[in-house]
Amino acid sequence: MTKIIVKDLGLLDYEAAWNYQEELLKEVVALKNSQAADRNAGYFLMVEHPHVFTLGNSGKADNLLVNAEFLKSKGASFYKTNRGGDITYHGPGQIVGYPIINLEAFGIGVREYVFRLEEVIIAVLAHYDILATRLDGGTGVWLDVNEPSKSRKICAIGVRVSRSVTMHGFAFNVNTDLDFYQMINPCGFTDRGVTSLKKELGFAVDIDEVKALVHKVFAEIFTVELIRQE
Q1: Which of 138, 153, 191, 221 is the most exposed place for a label (fewest CB within 10 A)?
Q2: In angstroms, rounded to a whole number, what is the distance separating the alpha carbons of residues 123 and 131?
Q3: Which residue(s) pair with 89 in the sheet?
Q4: pTM (2 decimals)?
Q5: What's the mean pLDDT in 9-22?
Q6: Residue 197 and residue 209: Cα distance in Å, rounded?
Q7: How far is Cα 207 from Cα 212, in angstroms, rounded to an integer?
Q8: Which helix (H) or strand (E) holds 96?
Q9: Three-state DSSP class for 191?
């Protein structure tokens, strides 16, 4: 069975995590191009970030609704990244997943990869009896998509693929402080909301419990063996 190394980075600065992803991407690309029979398919990082807003390479800067001085007053930072998608927020209480994996090992393309990431979060939410789905014309995982006035995103997805190896990934709101989303048009939307597992359930959830569930479902959907590494 294909193997992926799992690492939980805890609370880590966004730039440091981005740089680490770039290092691992180079490693996975090199292994992909080698003839090593025992090479793994890559890594799956989980992390929480201090307050930060990130803008994808297809995003619009005016979807950030506040200036640099206001961000600083809130202890937040801003980065323009090389992932797809528009603007989003990362912060404590949110599970950010960064799979750095070789898609050729799974025989899939980018569209199927994103579909599977969405499927992981949809299945995790079903464990908590929350019905989630996809939104036509928008990536990520949503609730109540058939009622525009009530539809809300619970997980954003933005990826980059270089030489068939992925980086960046998903941001799943678990116990996230949703007030920070008032500073942006989330993912470029002005007519849809955001939510969290905590808000939907009415109580905070053990984030380690949710991480374990994400790992379990990810392994099932991608048919891989996850190997934990400190």
Answers
A1: 191
A2: 9
A3: 53
A4: 0.94
A5: 97
A6: 12
A7: 9
A8: strand 94-101
A9: coil
- Structure token digits, residue 26: 């180079």
* CA angle at 128 for the pair 230 and 106, rounded to the nearest 5°: 50
Question: Do 92 and 67 form a contact (C-beta atoms < 8 A)?
Answer: no
Does residue 188 register a pLDDT over 70?
A: no
Gap between the Cα atoms of 61 and 156, Å rounded: 18
Catalytic residue among 117, 187, 207, 210: 187
Tokens of 16: 């440091």
- Residue-averaged pLDDT of the chain: 93
| 155: annotated active-site residue | no
Q: Distances from the Cα of 81 to the Cαs of 18, 64, 85, 215, in angstroms?
A: 9, 14, 10, 25
* Helix axis angle, 207-222 to 110-127, nearest 10°: 130
**Contact (CB, 8 A) for 159 and 110:** yes
Residue type, 204: A
Helix, strand or coil, per DSSP, at residue 69 = helix
Condensed to tens digits (0 to 9), the pLDDT of residues 21-70 reads: 999 999 999 988 775 545 678 999 999 999 999 999 888 889 999 998 99
Q: What 3-state DSSP class applies to 72?
A: helix
Distance CA(91)–CA(180), nearest Å, equals: 9
What the chain holds in terms of domains, given with CATH numbers, is 3-228 (3.30.930.10)
Rounded to whole angstroms, how far apart are CA atoms 85 and 225? Answer: 29
Q: Mind listing the pLDDT tens digit for each residue in 142-178?
A: 999 988 888 999 999 999 999 999 999 999 999 999 9
SS3 string, 201-227, reads HCCCCCHHHHHHHHHHHHHHHHCCEEE
